[in-house]
Structures are given as C-alpha cells and as structure tokens.
Amino acid sequence: MGFGQILAKRVGYGLVLLIAVVVLNFTLIxxxxxxVADAIxxxxxxxxxxxxxxxxxxxxxxxxFMSQLWRYLSSVAVMDLGYSYFYNxxxxxxxxxxxxxxxxxxxxxxxxxxSVGVLLGVMAAxxxxxxxxxxxxxxxxxGFAAPVFWTGILLIILFVSxxxxxxxxxxxxxxxxxxxxxxxxINIAYHLVLPMVTLASIYLALYSRxxxxxxxxxxxxxxxxxxxxxxxxxxKVFYKHALKNSLGPxxxxxxxxxxxxMSGAVVVEAVFNWPGLGTLALQAILARDTPxxxxxxxxxxxxxxxxxxxxxxxxxxxxxxxxxE
Amino acid sequence: MTDTAHTxxxxxxxxxxxxxxxxxxxxxxxxYAAVAGLVLLTLIILFAFVGPLIHPVDPFEMVWAPFxxxxxxxxxxxxxxxxxxxxxxxxxxxxxSMAIGLSAALVSVTIGVSVGAFAGYYGGLIEELLMRFTxxxxxxxxxxxxxxxxxxFGASLLTVTLAIGVVSWTAVARVTRSEFLRIREMEYVxxxxxxxxxxxxxxxxxxxxxxxxxxxxxxxxxxxxAILFEAxxxxxGLSDPNVISWGQVIGSNxxxxxxxxxxxxxxxxxxxxxxxxxxxxxxxxxxxLNPKLRQR
Amino acid sequence: xxxxxxxLFAATAVAALMATSATADEPKTGGTLTMAIQQTPRHxxxxxxxxxxxxxxxxxxxASLLRYDEGWEPQPYLAESWDVSADGLSVTVNLVKDAVFHxxxxxxxxxxxxxxxxxxxxxxxxxxxxxxxxxxTPDAHTAVIxxxxxxxxxxxxxxxxxxxxIPKHVYGDGQDPKTHPxxxxxxxxxxxxxxxxxxxxxxxxxxxxxxxxxxGLPYLDRIVMRIMxxxxxxxxxxxxGELQMSGFESSPRNIVRLKKNADLKVSNAGYAAIxxxxxxxxxxxxxxxxxxxxxxxxxxxxxxxxINKALNMGTAPTALTGIHPGSPFYDETVEAYDxxxxxxxxxxxxxxxxxxxxxxxxxxxxxxxxxxxxxxxxYMKPQLKKIGIDVTVRSSADFPTWAxxxxxxxxxxxxxxVFNWGDPVIGVHRTYSSDNIKEGVIWSNTQQYSNDRVxxxxxxxxxxxxxxxxxxxxxxxxxILADExxxxxxxxxxxHTVSSISAVGNASDSIWGTSTPLDRVYLK
Lengths: 325, 296, 524
Hints:
The structure holds three protein chains of three kinds. In chain A, 78% of the residues lie in helices and 1% in strands. Chain A is mainly α. Chain A has a two-stranded antiparallel sheet with strand order 1-2. In chain A, α1 (3-31) runs antiparallel to α13 (290-318) and α5 (91-126) runs antiparallel to α6 (131-145). The longest helix of chain A has 39 residues, at 181-219. Chain B contains 14 helices and no strands. In chain B, α5 (86-122) runs antiparallel to α6 (124-139), α5 crosses α12 (246-253) and α11 (199-235) packs antiparallel against α13 (262-289). The longest helix of chain B is centred in the middle third of the chain and has 37 residues, at 86-122. Chain B is elongated, with a radius of gyration of 24 Å. In chain C, 30% of the residues lie in helices and 20% in strands. The chains are: A mainly alpha, B mainly alpha, C alpha+beta. At the A-B interface, α1, α6, α7, α11 and α12 of A face α6, α7, α11 and α13 of B.
C-alpha cells in the first residue's frame, strides 16, 4: 500500500472515531441529571421555574435529543464548539487561549523525559552492573509508583517552602504584562521548571527503562554480532546501529502514552495552577459548564487521534522492519 | 542391575513435566526484588486489615487538636484538619483504596478479557469491530472522561470504581487478543475444535486458562494504576466524603499543604509503597513469564 | 516685638511640623497594584450580577451614588448631596456636575434612572429597589426616587456594587443587559478605573480613568487583579511580595500564618456590611427536622467553641443569630444553645426517638456547597453520632448541583453562608420570609420556614426609617428565630484584607471590604 493510501485510510478512520467520541460525550451529558440551565441559574444566584424554561428555550435544550445531537455535530464539523455561558466566550476561543500553555508543558516535559531517559537508558545498557543501572531501576519504580501530584507537592514543599527557589504556581507574573517578549519568556520559563520536572518524572522513568531494555535486546541480536564481527568500532556499533534500532519501541510508546501524558498534565496543572486546558477542564467541570467540557473532551480526543496517526507514520519511516510490511 | 535402575530413575525425573504455573513460581521466588515486593505487599495488607483490630480508633472521630504533628501527644502519624487520627485513617483508608483498586481492576479485566477473547477467537468482522471499539476507548482522555462521569453522576464508591474501570480496560483487551491469536493456532486447540466442542467452552475452558499468565501480569498492573487513578480523582476533589481512602485524605488536606505537609505526604507515601510493592510483584511475574529471560 | 517673634517662630514651627507629617503620609500617585481575586467573575457588570467575584472589579469600573466610610456614614460619590423627605417617600439625589463615562459621555440623571430600573429588573436582590415606583429626572443632574413606602435600606442599596451606574446609551440598545457584550469587553463604566484586559481564569487588568470626576484620584496607574482560587498559592504570593493585596481572605490557616508576617497588615475591618454568616440550615419540612425538638437537640449537640477554636483557629467571631455580629441590630442575648450533649440526648429521648441496637436513632444527610464548607459538614458526622444521629455527608461535584438540591428542597441539612448585604432588608429578610419560599432559587427561604409574626416584624422594620424602632423589632425577630431554629448560626466568616505594609497605603477604608472603589489606595 502506498503512503498516501495509508494516510487516507488512517485519517478517514480517525474521523469516524472522532464522531463516535462526540456522540458518546453528548449522550452522556444529556442523560446525566441536571443540565446547563441549572448551572446558569445557579450562577445567577437562583432562578424560578419560568426563568429556567426561558433559559432552556434559548439554548435549545427543550428540543428532542436527535435534533440537538445533529445540531451539535454539524457545528463541531465547522469547528464551532459552542458557547460557554460561564466564561462568556466561544468554547473554541477558550480552548485556543489555554492550549499553548498546556502544549508548552507537555512538550517541554516530554523532551526532558525523552532526552534524559534515553541518555540514562543508554548508559545503563552500556554498563549493566553499574550504579547507573541501579539508578535507572529505582527511578523507573519511583516514576511509576509515585502519584504525580505527590511528586509535585513534594517539589513545592522543597523548592518553594523550604528553600524558596521557584514560584509557587501560575505561568507568569501578571505585572509583566507590558514587558518585552524576552522578559516574559524568561519569567515563564522560571515558572515552568517545577511543573515540567513533575510531569517528566513519570515518563523519564519509563523511557529510560524502555531504552535500556530495548538496547539490551538489540545488543544481543545477530545484527549487532555481525557488525562487531566485521570489526566496527564499539561506539559506532553502539550509537549508530543499536540506538537507532531501539528507537522504534520508544516512539511507539511515546505516541501511545500521549493520552496518559494529557491526564498527567491535568493533575500537574491543578497542583501548580498552570493556566492550561487541564485547569480549564477542572473549572468547567466544577461549574457544570457543559459546552466547555464537551469541547475539551472532543479536542483532546482529536489531538490523541492526530498524534496516533503521526506516530504510526513516523514509525513506518524509521523502522525498516515495519516498512517491509 | 543397579545401573539401569539408577538411569531409569534419572530419566523419570527428567520426564516429569512442570506446569507453567509451577515454572513461574520457581522463577519468581528466585527474583529478590519480586519477593521483597510480595513481602511488602503482605505487610501493607496486614496493616490495613489487621491494624484496626490493634488500633481500634474510628477514623471519622475527632480525637485531638487538628494538625497535631506526628509523634506528638501519642499520635504516631498526627491528626488531620478536623483532628482525626491519621494512623486510623491510613489503616481504614488502605482497606478502601486497595478494595477500589481491586474492584476497578476487576471491572477492567472483565471487560478487557471479554472483548479481547472474542476478538482473538472469532477473527474477521467481529475482531475488526471489537478492535475498533477498543481503539475508540483508547482515544478517550482517561482522566478527563472519568472526571466527567464522576462529576455528572455523583461521587460514590460505585461511580468512582466504574469510572476507573471503564476507561482502563483497553490494555487488557490487547493482551488478551494477542494471546488468543497465538494460542488459537496451537495443535490442542485445533484438535478440540475439530470435535464438537462449542465456541464458548473453547474460549473459556480451553484457551483462556492458557492465556492467563500475561493477563494476570496486566491485571496486576491495573490494580496499581487503579489505586493511583482513585488518588488522582480524590486529589481533584471527586471522591466520596463518607468513605475514607488514602486519596481522600490527600484531597481533604490539600488546602493545608504548606502548614501541615505531613497530612498529605503520609498518605502519598502509603500509596507509593503499595503501588511499588504491586509493581515489583508484577515485574517478577513478567520476568517469570518471559522465556528469553528464563535462559539467563 | 518679642511677642511677634515668638508667634512667628511658633507659626513657622507648626507649619514645618505639618509639612513633614504631610509628606510622610501623603499619598503618592503612580504605580501598579497587584492584588488577587478568588474566582473568575462571570462578567464585570454588578448591576445585573450579585456576588463579590463581580463586585470587586465591578466597583472599580462602575461608580455608585454613595460610598460608606468605616463608621457606616454615607459619603458623597456620584451623588454630591442627597435628601430624604420627611415622610420617607421620596429621596432626591444631586449628581456631581462634571462626571463622564469612560467614553466621555456625561453621566446624567437619565443614566441613574436607567440604572435603577435595570438593577430592579435584573439583579437577584429584588428587595433593594422593590419599593421604587418611579425615578423622576427634573434636570440633568437631579434624580428624584419615589417610593411606595419608607425604605430604610435605600441609602445602603445605592452604594458599592449594589447600584452600579451604567450608561443608558450603551445598555439601552435593546439587548438583554445580562448577556450584553459590554459586560466583559470594551466596558463603558463610570468608575475610577477603565478596563484594559479581562482574561477569564487569569486576570483583570485596569488602568486609571483620566477623566475621573474626583480630582487627583485615583492614585494608582494600574491595578492587576490576578485570579487565584487557591488559598495556599495566594498566601505564598503575598509573603513573597508577588501580590500586594488580597481581600476576602477567609482561610483560618492562612490568616494565622499571614498575621505572623511583619510586613503584612491583616485586618478584619471593613466587612461588616458584607455581613457573612455561616449556619447549619434545616429543611423544616423534612420528616425528622419538622420537629423543633430535633432541631433544638442538634443545636445543643453542635459545639460552637470547638468549631471556632479548632476549625476556625480563633479567627472567626461567633454568630448567635442570622444577623451579623457587626451590625447595629445584632442581639447577643438570644439563647445560645451552649453545647450540652446530655440535654440533647434527653430531648430526643423525650420526643420519642429511641436508640437502636447500634446506638443510632435515625439518619440525616448533610450537604455543603463548595470545598471551604466541607470541614464543617464533616464535623457534624462524628459530633451528631454522639446523640445518636447517623449523618451521611453528601458531596456535590459542583456548585450548581448543590444549589439545585437546596433550592428544590432535596436536602435534610446543609452548611450555608449567606451575606447580610448591609441592611437586613436586603440580605436577611429573604431567608425567613414566607413569601420568599421560591423553588429553584438558591439563597431564598430554602428552609421553607413560615411564621406570621416574623413576616409582620420584617414588613414593619422594612417600612420605617426610625432606627430605635427597627432595633426593637429586629431584637424580637432574633429571639423568635432562636427559639424556632429554622437554622442554627455558628460563625461569621472571618474575612480579612491582607496588604503589604511597606508597599500599600489606605488599603481598607470602607464597610464593603475590597468590593469598593480603590481610588484612594496608593503605593508607597
């Protein structure tokens, strides 16, 4: 199958998935007790029955289920995710506003986790009985077993309370609103450190262990034995051949983990008051802001689907074994 | 005379077949980390279930001044924001956290095994549909979705368990399916099939028992991650206030982190130890299963 | 000669002394104040939205007719003078002559009339302007408010966030004022500050209104209001100097901790008009709670002392009645129901609720509306167990769910926090009036309490301007309520304003906390 065909197939299938996600979310929110009207009324300080009827009419909540669903689907198709009564702005705008913060957090932590993880994994694979190997083992256990918010809280206690080095939360000192881009970036980076390290901690453990295992497997293979027999230098064997071939599983896992990374991001954002999609989701849930909740669920599913497609394609490119399929 | 007898004896020993379970157990026991994990887990379970008999304090009762630091006034782990004994909360909470972990894992495994088994056994269109169904759930953002379920339907033990179970089963399904695909082709299955054995019988009585080892490993992982999941939901405020669990203690004491960090650090540590023990055991099981490593 | 020299010397000395003291306390103009607010406001127009989330930024953007100083005395604001007629049926307000809106359009009596009409029609607090029959505008700077009966709460209702003067030329365009776009963007207000940016979930940024009608004010160039819902985060930011001021701080732990900081002024002055009272509310139509003996028993079981000492760490004043202890009408002689478990058990035994084999008589549920209330609800569980009531704590994932439950009477008991809003007519009557048993409306008479005498007292007290008469009436009211117990008041929310001593001057000078124009605040 040609590349284009594969891409088309994946994308087409991704769309079907997306529609299914939307339908599921919509159904769930509709069958749950209470609705947006109650939320709006609660927010206004209470409303009697006639006002509730008016609100329901205005938001089209008194229409039959299928017509509401159809209306929602068609608006989603043009990327109109609805209107958040709580924030008084369109959901799409709201999401786009908060998206950069979350992306920054996710990508910086993943880059940290992958680079340090691979480094540690390679070092551990090279010297199987060293301290590094032991460290990787312990680190990977800690990374999996420690609840991510606990790690975050410990870091806060250490670096904010006991030795105040980093700010306690937020993304940027609001007083810098007029400062230069450079100054703002430095300040954001300063606020980014703790959340980034917290989120990276889980995956760092995973990636280092994965790299080590992968490297060990490849190093024991015929391919490497042949290379060594041919007299290639150890370094070249190690880095050029072994490492390159071990990256496959890493990419797969990194891609698959993306959904989990987003979950982790929600918690980390809550711990550090990082103004991204995670805190938006939490606030929306606590305020029963249904359009926003659905918008975020839709959006994160969309991102996961896109990342899956992307990972799949990248894998095909770098791993010759799969290409042969 | 004696020589042949001796040889026969030796031959007999070599011929005795060990079941895969026995093999696994032997491998497991040789793995120190795994054994350590098992011991730790046992201690934790004893602490949670036998502890309250030795320390019969009601974790809901306000026994002393709030935020008494650990080791002060006779309270080994101190008191929380309402003046309730943290040690008692750790014991009773442990029961609940582990129970939720186990139940949620059970829900996950039930759904996952069913989906994976049918997909792997029948193949074709059924497999295609079931796998697409699995992929659908894989795409859903797990924490967000379970948060929404708990928020919409109220936070009770039941909703939390179901919410966790419903989003976590896909890994089990994948493992089950690949095992079924592998075992389906084996001779003894083909033999049973050619007889008049019914499908369901084959699935659950012939193939599944042999597919169990990797599923068990996965299930073990599920328990650990379910405990972590419940803790995350509680931290975010979505837990049943009438039930004390480790996550719930963390969640309720969260506003007081900076002044009484111990109230959050202690349950966090308990969760860490438990999940650590579970994953050490899981690692041991996994290594015991892996044929390549067996040769080491 | 000698005398003249002496007096000259004295005069110079006095002048010099005055000059130095003046410069020491003299407010400086300029600078950006960074403060915190605790929730994202829905929008910034307090004329159609209640709550301090909108009020704190809203009172910077919109001016009201009056403002109150720390001594509960009304001061001129947009109204430079006012007059209440002898029969109490008409109030004449004279506006400042040169006030303009943020877009330069003059503020006239038409805008005042329009604002009162808008608030009357859209604001949840119907009692503020219900007696207003019409607002006459004889000339551009005079408004005459005609009332159907004397309305003692009117002056208070014309201050702070309760009557924001909004521009008729913007809001009179036919759109629903509750969802008008100008509520959040391109806000055309009448107050000391203009809107620069409102980023939901992050901040509200305000800058000086150069055309503000009070000369020389505001002192500040800018105010940045950071939205920070987390108590601990705010506390740390205040300690580190990242924040210079924060109002409505009520977390006992934070208050105690911040008080220890030498550079922070932590003051509970100025919240008397907000008047926040926390109580345990009973659904008087629920099966067991319809029996007054049960309610009394619960009152005897709840230990206010423990709650205030342990949970509130001594930061919150005890509240014995539904009227805030800082109000001139507070009656502290009512029955306090000091904790007496034996008596509580006796009452329940006598009423026929016997203990079962597990020591429990019956079960009740308790709700709470938001996380800060949770500890108090949880306290009830072990405490009421001691008198044989099995309490189940119900959590609501979000505020609307709780609000719906309580307002549709789907509850037994709930912790609640309700504001007096200055005059009892505005914030107290709504809780006990049998006319205000409105299904679906939170903070109405959700206890479903009905007492004819209580209704009559409140009717009378709301129609007379005589303070002595009102004090006597409200005293009788509180005595009746303490006997019938539709709710059991426990404490007054310990709101405090925290400000940096070295950086901020004039942090609190009103009775409305930080929901008041911050035009006199300056940076040192």
